[in-house]
From TrEMBL:
GO molecular function terms attached to this record: glyoxylate reductase (NADPH) activity; hydroxypyruvate reductase (NADH) activity; NAD binding
Sorted UniProt keywords: Oxidoreductase
Name under which the protein is recorded: Glyoxylate reductase/hydroxypyruvate reductase
Nucleotide-binding listed as a keyword: no
One cellular component (GO) term of this entry: cytosol
Source organism (scientific name): Magallana gigas (Pacific oyster)
Amino acid sequence: MSKPFVFVSRVPPPRGMELIEEFCTVKAMRDDRFITRQEMLEGVVGVEGILCHPPDKVDKEVLDIAGKSLKSVSTMSVGLEHIDLTECKARGISVGYTPGVLTDATAETTVSLLLATSRRLKEAFSAVVDGGWGTWENGLYLCGKTLLESTVGIVGLGRIGLAVAKRLQPFGVQKFLYSGNTKKEWASEINAEFVSFERLLGESDFVIACCSMNKDNMGLFNKSAFSKMKNNAIFINTSRGVLVNQEDLYDALKLGTILAAGLDVTSPEPLPREHPLHTLKNCVITPHIGSATVYARNAMAELAAKNLIAGLKGKRLPSPVPQ
Ligand code: DGY
């Protein structure tokens, strides 16, 4: 019996790729770069399955080109903004994703960014190599902001938000606030108080965006939001770059409306080298490495492969997208 033909838009770590190659005939993008739209359109012609990753769009045009043979779409991500779920559902195409297995890694990245930002590590690293290694300066040389007795506001207390809060708790955080929907038992695990978005902005020392992106929260963190935050607040985003109006963030950081920002996500990605945010010492940017531990990436690859294969077999997916 011939193996199902699948397109892989970005090769996953071996644990996932081996599973896929065992069961499928694979056409894969093996270069270490983002796939172009043209390559995506050419790659999916007549396939039964697609393994993808944001930002590789699986939209109506891609689904049309893949044609009626397409049964299974699997993304190696928790984010789903690149997939037209409505079209997939209408065509009876199963869609799998990889929540859960990347929660801990992404929470670690969020905490790392928060500490790097609050303890001014960007300036500290530069000082060491650029000859700026200072002394005492009245005891305030490279002093930063502490989590001790702080209020942390989490926008989107989902799996990742909760995992972040649990890791921050031992640093002596006094209070957790959150906005958006969550499960009551998750909020009570960290004794978090539900407040309006405005109140969260006004009362938090650290504002952390952990929400998933949707059409209503694009540009949520804009001039108006930053103006409601404390002057010494730190903003962290490990969700999606489009949640932030980056021009407004630049102004807020430059003018001292807020103290600092740590971003693992930007819009676009990569953020061009000449982008003004790079010029700010109070803005730490990492290249979307939220889930980048070997453990998490292998687990994501395995789950994505299993989702893809289950969809091809017409079986229940280990991790289907809720429809
Ligand atoms: C995800 O899983 O959505 C991560 O952001 C990687 O894209």
